[in-house]
């Protein structure tokens, strides 16, 4: 098995992609298959709002190869409402629901609210220790102290390292470098976390979320540091997953592929991405 870098977006269906990157119309149970021709990973953001049925998840699995990566977000009930306490029942339901993904469930994504701070780390430690070791965890924190207070950062790292869990950075530094210029950017300006940059990996499967701008050139300019970091991880034998976001996500799949191409230019032994399924049916005439 050669080196693998997986890239993806925040969703696998988006109005802006219809008829341009993905055929339109496309039945629901075909959308992910077509997206998987562009990217080989996806953020499972929908599971934050509701736990899907195993039947729904089985449809996702059927549309993707076993090496496709889902980073599935834990339900809001678990992370935000109950803050990882007294969550046995919803966690069991969630793990049962995603079982059809099999090896595609690359990581359970524990996205914690901005109010979940250093004092809550023992709660996180307890939660992570109780999870079955059939799943890897990746934790995203948004409390500033984890980034600015070295002791808080070290404590979190040691809790994560104890269970081989990753720390997911959400790099919004390129996005917040200049004031917003569009409605999509203004909307993201009020919603996205503004945190210091973090680039360290804890495990052999780092996961990065990167937010660019509506202007593709600015997005590409802002990810330059990640090209070197990602190439370095690959040379160390790690297998990273990088998610490319922009405020409107209109070109996210093509940008994710471009990121992969640019890393591959540095690491030529990297396995190529799949070929997209053509949008227009090819004919002989």
From TrEMBL:
InterPro entries listed in its UniProt record: DUF72, UPF0759_sf
Gene3D superfamilies according to UniProt: Protein of unknown function UPF0759
Pfam families with a match to the protein in the record: DUF72 (PF01904)
Top-level taxon of the source organism: Bacteria
Protein name: DUF72 domain-containing protein
